[in-house]
Specification:
single chain, 4 strands, mainly alpha, about 150 residues, Phage virion morphogenesis protein, two-stranded antiparallel ribbon, 4 helices, Phage_virion_morphogenesis
Length: about 150
């Protein structure tokens, strides 16, 4: 997080000189761009640092035969569940509603029950949200564009 702290320190004085309305517009634009970036990472089945997600575990033979045709987290990346919010103080991209718990379990690789009454399963860590170098550069460009106006 030292890189983010250095980034924050460099631009905080310039950002504080903007009006609250201008800061809100800038934060909303950054949040929307970040959400699009996070959605693309989830679609490509990769963590923000570029490493691929761990594949699903193989199911026991008594289940359905054949491969799972859906990609992981297809619904999570939709705008219904992945919200982008910006106000005069911050920009946020977060999961909403009941999917927050599921996203947290997969993001950190926690234990959870796959179904009600089922046994607990240890999930692999699959980071869903985070900053990449490209995201930080995009934020810098967006801030510079708003400061130039």
């Amino acid at each position: 997080m030292d890189g983010l702290q250095a980034f924050d320190d460099r631009l905080s004085a310039l950002i504080n000189n903007l009006s609250p309305q201008s800061r809100k517009q800038m934060a909303a634009a950054i949040a929307k761009r970040l959400r699009a970036s996070q959605q693309q990472n989830i679609k490509r089945q990769q963590a923000p640092d570029g490493t691929p997600f761990k594949p699903r575990k193989r199911q026991p033979l008594r289940g359905k035969k054949g491969r799972v045709k859906r990609e992981m987290f297809a619904k999570l990346r939709t705008a219904k569940y992945l919200k982008a919010k910006g106000n005069s103080d911050d920009a946020a991209v977060q999961f909403t509603g009941n999917v927050q718990r599921m996203a947290r379990v997969h993001h950190y690789g926690l234990r959870d029950r796959a179904s009600r009454g089922g046994k607990e399963v240890q999930y692999e860590a699959r980071p869903l949200l985070g900053f990449s170098e490209a995201d930080i550069e995009m934020i810098e460009r967006e801030v510079i564009a708003h400061l130039g106006n």
